[in-house]
Amino acid sequence: MVKARISCLWFLLKLSLLITICIVVVAAIGSWVGAYQDLLVNLLAAFMFVFIGTVVALIYYKMQMEELLRFFGLDASRSTITIYVSQVLCESGHAIGVDDQPTTCGTPAAPFRELEAANRFRELFAYPFHSLFNSLPIGKPQISDIEIQIQPSLLGVQKTFVPLFPFISVGGPAFNAASRFIEKDPKAQLQSLITGGETKIKPRDMPDVKDPYCGFVERRVRSQGHVFYAVGCSSMGSAGAAYYLATQWKKLSKEYDDDTDFLVRLRFDPEDFKRCLEVLFLKREIAD
Could you give the count of Cα atoms lying within 13 Å of 154 in the half-sphere of its Cβ? Predict the structure, then answer.
């Protein structure tokens, strides 16, 4: 399923074979001259111990990677996941500078917390020994071909906008076209409502949520690919939901099957969106 070609394992096998051959040759020479034989044997045993431990660790990592890819709906045919974050355009008189004075901001901007949470997904899928062996002539180790794309939402009403599947959308539909796409689905589990400048989230068949430190993580399993929606009543809630998805996916994987929809309600520390204080698993399965 995964195009997670464990070339890193093959790389280490070649490396260990090369080391073993060198040590055996040196040991043979040492035995022939009758010197340093015990030292070389001990070195060989130490290298083999390190190699076996590394192989065991990589096998464990491979199992974790396969579980991760199943959770996010990635495989050989879907090796790219796109993360859409909010984008805000500040017009004249509506942006506040560091001197607390209105100023002009003619370029779009993305919320910092959302970008920080989105970048956490890069680390999630990254190879753990980044560029460690790049300079060696026997090859460059690589775990998988998964590509993470972080894109700001399109501005304006995009009626024909269709996101790239599978994808993760961070933030509400007011500033994220991908979130608008999700909520337009008749089977969407969440609806964002803005009344009097206040944002509230309406989960299906549940009371409205107005707490700015609450967030939701929704997953829809669709034929085109998995859809993840991280949204809250504020940027902190949305970023917290995305960060929770990136860091606690394993807990969600144990709670829900890989091929089912789910909805989770979260509450975060007002001082730190990365610290989740409360998790409420809402089991709900919706057919595509």
Answer: 13
Q: What is the CA radius of gyration of the chain?
A: 25
Is 226 within a domain?
yes
The first and second tokens of residue 9, run together, are 């394992």
Does 159 map to a domain? yes
SS3 104: coil
* Domain limits for position 14: 7-71
On whether the pTM is more than 0.90, the answer is: no
Element (H, E) at 229: strand 225-232
Residue range 96-107, pLDDT digits in tens: 655 555 666 666
**How much of the chain is in helix, strand and coil states, percent to nearest 5?**
35, 25, 40
| Residues 106 and 175 both lie in one domain | yes
Q: What is the mean pLDDT of the chain?
A: 78
Indicate whether 65 pLDDT > 60: yes
My answer on whether 56 and 163 are in the same domain is no
